[in-house]
Specification:
about 375 residues; alpha+beta; 14-stranded mixed beta sheet; 14 strands; about 35% helix
Length: about 375
């Protein structure tokens, strides 16, 4: 039974089938959290995703007997390649059955496309930018996924390694019980930082105020804070406009912490959301006709886990204790919301500043994910 691989056109109908395969493959798996189908389709659509201003992409689907058995997307981020001096082909949105022939057919197809585009190395799983899914799960297969991360079967790493792919970098994730009280060390550090740098927590009263007062500052902060991190792709003005419109209207203000200086300039930010993992499982990634009923439940206190989506600190203040200010604000908010634990989501194992922020908390490193690489 031969394997055929076809290029997927960037039409809504074709991309929906592409995305749904990645959900159907995990039917019945208790740990897999599906994405919202519409979100992934929009990410892969040149007319919806402003990252296509500087990225090229091609998706592929593998078939056996006219039935889909695998998928993959090749992505070339020209901005990152120019910044690094490399000719990297990223691969992402990768799913496949445990079959050597299927895996080889998919990676051979995307590698050939990459070579035709002038690339000489393959790396991933990565998305168009850091706002997309990153890293293959290599530890924690018995842990519930999150809406911001990839879940994959345990055979995935074995298949990539069989093809000669090796570790490029790892991310780690922590499960952190919400403490009954703010650690005393954090309280002391927060007070010192507040006085030394004349910083304070800014409170906004509405999402409209958040957008107008801090929207552009927030994404400018992300660009500066993440600029030197692995594979970072600076957000363009079109992307920032897109994300302000798409995401800032969804943020719960009580799960947000904004740190500013005396001139109201943003120097630190922490964004979290109640876990949508169970809601996404119940909705199977669809809002309609009835999935929306599951998706609104976490907004009204029906979950015990909070996802720490993003922490960004101005490079000028990194390593100076600003994180302590964030947690002195967020921990009481988490307690009031009834959260029992927090998911850190992926953090580069080599990022010492972000790893140090957990040193005074009880925590368990429960997941690890990896970016693989190989020459083309």
């Amino acid at each position: 039974m031969s394997i055929t691989v076809e290029k997927i056109p960037a039409t809504r109908a074709a991309l929906r089938k592409f995305v749904k395969f990645g959900i159907d493959l995990y039917r019945g798996n208790p740990y897999f959290v599906p994405p919202l189908v519409t979100d992934d389709v929009n990410t892969l659509s040149p007319d919806r995703n402003p990252a296509f201003d500087f990225c090229r992409a091609q998706s592929f689907m593998a078939y056996r007997d006219n039935r889909p058995v695998g998928r993959i997307t090749g992505i070339i981020n020209d901005v990152v390649n120019e910044r690094t001096g490399r000719k990297d082909l990223r691969f992402g949105f990768v799913e496949f059955i445990d079959d050597d022939d299927v895996v080889d057919a998919l990676f051979d197809a995307v590698s050939q496309w990459g070579r035709e585009q002038g690339m000489d190395r393959i790396v991933g799983p990565l998305g168009f930018t850091d706002m997309d899914y990153e890293g293959l799960l290599v530890e924690g297969f018995d842990q519930l996924g999150t809406m911001a991360t990839i879940y994959n079967y345990p055979y995935y790493p074995r298949q990539l390694e069989r093809r000669g792919m090796v570790k490029d970098i790892d991310w780690v994730e922590y499960l952190i019980p919400i403490p009954d009280a703010i650690p005393e060390k954090h309280l002391r550090i927060a007070e010192i930082v507040r006085r030394k740098f004349n910083l304070h927590v800014a409170h906004v009263k509405s999402r409209k105020e958040l957008k107008e007062r801090y929207g552009y500052q927030l994404f400018d902060l992300i660009n500066r804070a993440y600029d030197r991190l692995y594979g970072y792709s600076p957000l363009t003005q079109r992307q920032i406009d897109h994300y302000i419109k798409q995401y800032l209207g969804l943020i719960q203000l009580n799960n947000l912490c904004i740190i500013v200086d005396a001139d109201d300039h943003l120097v630190g930010c922490g964004i979290s959301l109640p876990s949508f993992s169970r809601a996404l499982q119940k909705s199977r990634g669809r809002l309609f006709p009835l999935g929306w009923r599951h998706m609104i439940r976490p907004l009204f206190g029906h979950v015990d886990t909070v996802d720490l989506l993003l922490v960004a600190i101005d490079p000028e203040y990194q390593g100076k204790g600003v994180n302590a200010l964030l947690f002195t604000e967020l921990i009481p908010a988490f307690q009031r919301a009834g959260f029992r634990q927090a998911e850190s989501n992926p953090e580069l194992e080599s990022n010492e500043n972000v790893q140090k922020q957990w040193e005074y908390f009880e925590r368990k490193q429960h997941k690890r994910r990896r970016s693989y690489t190989a020459p083309l």
